[in-house]
């Protein structure tokens, strides 16, 4: 069985921290998968192990779980406690606002913890194609936001980029501005619109982003708001992403427990192995494990 490095998952404990989106600010209308009440409970290391039982998961990367923003560093500290007790996660992508006076201070606080490898700080984005927020505070054109982003490579941090497909071309402009910044696109750039027109928009954005050699991509979260998880449809997305970015810059990620709203962990891994079966064995292993080990600097 191939070793698996899960390059993107979440953990949370309501006893240890506050998660507004899961507790008192539930809003299925704003969530990309719709109803997510099944997520509104603890998801622990033990539950992750149970979900991934039978898969050869050798390391994981925890990405910030939108814990209360007053507890950004507390989340990082708690994740280190989980690593000490359970052996994972093996790398942490923390949160810090990039457009605040305290940005550098917060980044340095995270870096007191040895597993921190990167930051995910979502830029302000438009709610739909054709809408524009360009130049507004917190967007990818905001000078304060860009100054904060510029701190990441100087501190040895990567950036987990999460934007919908209609912002991929803008993200490419940012990637070109910071060639020394290691960037990884979350969730395949969200090819939510599977119509011919929607896929063309996604593909054009991905091709533009892939021209920047510092950008990688996570093969993750193929769930759709209004439909089931369909392997044949998702295989098209996976194979096109591999063709655009090359196997050297793609990495498997589960996005559990969120992806569990549509598919089980073992079923997801098995499907991903089938969808990447056209690769040579060493290439498939790189996608399923080695690329994430290298990007997040995890000791094998």
Automatic annotation (TrEMBL):
One of its GO terms (molecular function) is hydrolase activity. Pfam families: Amidohydro_2. The keyword Hydrolase applies. Belongs to the metallo-dependent hydrolases superfamily. It comes from Paenacidovorax monticola. It comes from the Bacteria. Keywords: Hydrolase. The keyword Kinase does not apply. This is Amidohydrolase family protein. The lineage of its organism: Bacteria, Pseudomonadati, Pseudomonadota, Betaproteobacteria, Burkholderiales. Transmembrane segments: none annotated. Residues 5-298 form the Amidohydrolase-related domain.
């Amino acid at each position: 069985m191939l070793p698996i490095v899960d390059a993107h998952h979440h953990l949370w404990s309501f006893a240890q921290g506050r998660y507004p989106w899961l507790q008192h600010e539930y809003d299925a209308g704003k969530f990309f998968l719709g109803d997510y009440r099944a997520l509104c409970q603890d998801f622990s290391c033990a539950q992750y192990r149970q979900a991934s039982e039978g898969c050869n998961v050798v390391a994981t990367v925890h990405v910030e779980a939108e814990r209360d923003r007053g507890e950004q560093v507390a989340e990082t500290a708690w994740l280190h406690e989980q690593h000490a007790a359970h052996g994972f996660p093996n790398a942490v992508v923390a949160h810090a606002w990039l457009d605040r006076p305290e940005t550098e201070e917060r980044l340095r606080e995270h870096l007191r913890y040895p597993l921190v490898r990167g930051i995910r700080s979502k830029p302000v984005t438009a709610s739909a194609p054709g809408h524009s927020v360009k130049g507004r505070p917190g967007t990818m054109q905001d000078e304060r936001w860009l100054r904060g982003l510029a701190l990441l490579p100087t501190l040895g941090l990567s950036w987990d980029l999460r934007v919908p497909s209609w912002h991929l071309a803008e993200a490419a402009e940012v990637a070109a501005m910071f060639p020394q910044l290691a960037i990884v696109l979350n969730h395949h750039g969200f090819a939510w619109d599977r119509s011919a027109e929607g896929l063309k928009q996604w593909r054009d954005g991905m091709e533009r982003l892939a021209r920047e050699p510092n950008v990688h991509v996570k093969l993750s979260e193929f769930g759709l708001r209004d439909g089931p998880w369909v392997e044949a449809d998702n295989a098209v997305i996976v194979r096109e992403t591999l063709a655009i970015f090359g196997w050297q810059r793609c990495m498997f990620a589960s996005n559990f427990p969120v992806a569990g709203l549509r598919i089980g962990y073992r079923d997801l891994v098995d499907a991903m192995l089938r969808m990447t079966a056209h690769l040579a064995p060493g290439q498939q292993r790189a996608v399923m494990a080695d690329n994430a080990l290298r990007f997040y600097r995890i000791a094998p």
